[in-house]
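Model the whole thing, not chain by chain.
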Amino acid sequence: MSADPVLARLDADLPQALERLMTFLAIPSISTDPAYAADCDRAADWLVADLKALGATAEKRATPGHPMVVGHIGEGAPHLLFYGHYDVQPADPPELWHRDPFDPAVEDTPAGRVIRGRGAADDKGQLMTFVEACRAWIAEHGALPCRITFFFEGEEESGSPSLVPFLRENADELAADLALVCDTGMYDRKTPSIVTQLRGMLREEVVLRGASRDLHSGLYGGLAVNPIHVLSRVLADLHDDTGRVTLEGFYDGVAETPPEVRAQWDALAFDAEGFLGRVGLSHGAGERDRTALERLWARPTAEVNGIEGGYTGAGFKTVLPAEARAKVSFRLVGEQDPEAIHRAFVDHVERRLPPDVTAEFPMGDGAPATQMDVSRPAFEAARAALSAEWETEAVFAGVGGSIPVAGYFQSVLGTEPMLIGFGRDDDALHSPNEKYDLESFHKGARSWVRILEALTRG
Amino acid sequence: MSADPVLARLDADLPQALERLMTFLAIPSISTDPAYAADCDRAADWLVADLKALGATAEKRATPGHPMVVGHIGEGAPHLLFYGHYDVQPADPPELWHRDPFDPAVEDTPAGRVIRGRGAADDKGQLMTFVEACRAWIAEHGALPCRITFFFEGEEESGSPSLVPFLRENADELAADLALVCDTGMYDRKTPSIVTQLRGMLREEVVLRGASRDLHSGLYGGLAVNPIHVLSRVLADLHDDTGRVTLEGFYDGVAETPPEVRAQWDALAFDAEGFLGRVGLSHGAGERDRTALERLWARPTAEVNGIEGGYTGAGFKTVLPAEARAKVSFRLVGEQDPEAIHRAFVDHVERRLPPDVTAEFPMGDGAPATQMDVSRPAFEAARAALSAEWETEAVFAGVGGSIPVAGYFQSVLGTEPMLIGFGRDDDALHSPNEKYDLESFHKGARSWVRILEALTRG
């Protein structure tokens, strides 16, 4: 079946596709905050209804957390599993948004038209590129060219606690010949990419407690222990002066980037200055003796994502706090073992606790890094399809973010994942004023049509 | 004029005095939070009305911040200036209070009856001990035994920005023979004290900024600078391994405690274990080679009172924050110069800033330590009066907290301050469930009657 009339159909129906996306974006499906549980449920219902409108059998499946959405449509080989997530990040701080994050709109900007709203790029807009490609295909040809299973999650932004159990229980239904995941970005504005290397992640929270209540620093200061001081020491000691992470055994299983991959990356002539300059920075931090792309794609990291303790309101309160806490994430590469690093982190903290201070670790969940098997023909076929749509040679790239589902598809379902997405560096993922370029949305859907055609050709 | 009938009057009128205090405590006069500005004003109005009810000429005086209250009554020597503050600390976190902090009540506890509510001890309950003493004296004798000027401030908990300018402008009106300040505590449950040594304080806020917006730690982590890491280093480096503060020149002007004072403190047999045990601690922190009382009364300190950066809500957000901030207070002793220490702190931070991180210091206001002249006969007279009321020998003590007004009375008005208060260690100043013992309130007022009698005798 030919892609051309389907591409024309996508062009003609763009206004309707945008209208659907806006309805979807208006649902504040923030998975990390229990206050939005009903909205997560509503987003799942919206997806079920939309898949049914395509002619799929689709349903919401309960989990201990937010529901999964599973839909089936089409016949024939290959069997493709498509994954996306309908949950979004919190929109705080709200005062930094120039519009209500859940009242999305298409805006004209100097760099082109953008879809503005929380989730526009991560991941609602991206997942809809694939759904719209399928819709247009069915509209033109009456049926899809192969069997497709849709699988949408609602807990990606909160660590996917229900994902592995759900994959295990439904492995027969979900295992496919190839898993397509649309949750990544372009290499640059012009160059599409297939991500073949993903860092894993370990998420930690550490809570240090001292006195049984907040104390007056004038009455107790100098004699009573201050948990913020202890936490500062714990966090300051996470890195040495060269930017390396100091946890015992942290670099076990971290392989050097092979010379040929390094050469390919060097050939990309990555513009680190421009990359940092767009967010107001001019100097790279982190491991001094590594190239920028190595630091971003191939090296493990430790980052403090949040810290809190004592009085943080307006003015001053001379409190000596009973408690201080931090959230820390470790990006993992190669064969790094999240469980071993969790133990090393606990040990790092506990060795720095003075008498009277206790530590709790309420998180500690992680997923290892993932490496795709690019020798499969589907990878080269998809790369050619992307290159045709964007009129630029597509690349196999690494990515610093973690998409644990890719590893789970391999380990639990035995299904090779292929990560293709159309986000751009300036999409402001997880930040105020998140956007998704209208071009990403439109040419993204067109890309999927070409990929479907390429994967089912002959 | 005899104290005895006045003491009897205080005993008889305790219910009415409590009722007045409850009305005063119900006003949420939180000076650090602009949302409560009208309540601060209301608390000042309440005091003006109460002083007028005594027969004083009293008025509210405008400042650039919250108003001052000044009242005059009585004739003859000595001229006594009485100081207290009507503003209170914020009541957060509200969920840790077992009652509404601004719906005060007298509660029965295993340790006796207490007045529960924000400001009960700091400082509304304390300042009213003096006002009630005057009221009872006037009721019995028709007039006070000497000239008294009441001076109440509404910015003590927010650094008293208007205090020095106001003292300067009104020095002729406020200068007196002796300034009485009721904002301190007993030495222990049984032993009253006159505070003759006060630590000063320098308050700092440091705001570190990196990227122009929050970043996704997966996309930028390892390459972009993280202000929380930098702040952790800055704060961890404030103390060395022995607990000493590392700021350049920090200990300049810090004299060793004279042997005779040390001997007197040793004779107090301070129960450090009990002091710490009451707040769930068992080990002293801070300078290793100093006694507990030295650390609390005589040594300078650096304490982080609050820290904030990145995502601190429920769940996890893999953000690499644009900003991190901390509030730090330095308690000062001897001749330590707040301005020099401010410069040393700025230097300490700036020497630890990597490229791309900038620092702002929005505060940096301080007051030096204060030492009273205990050779004045008034000190011994007041000590005897306190000893009589509490049937326990009163002591001259140091205190770790800062009461900058004491130093300003010396330096701006040339008036020697005398600090007498009836708070107890477990009053939970600045903490949830603040209380003031009913005994503190009642015997506090009785103490002032005896002190007035002693200071005006013959």
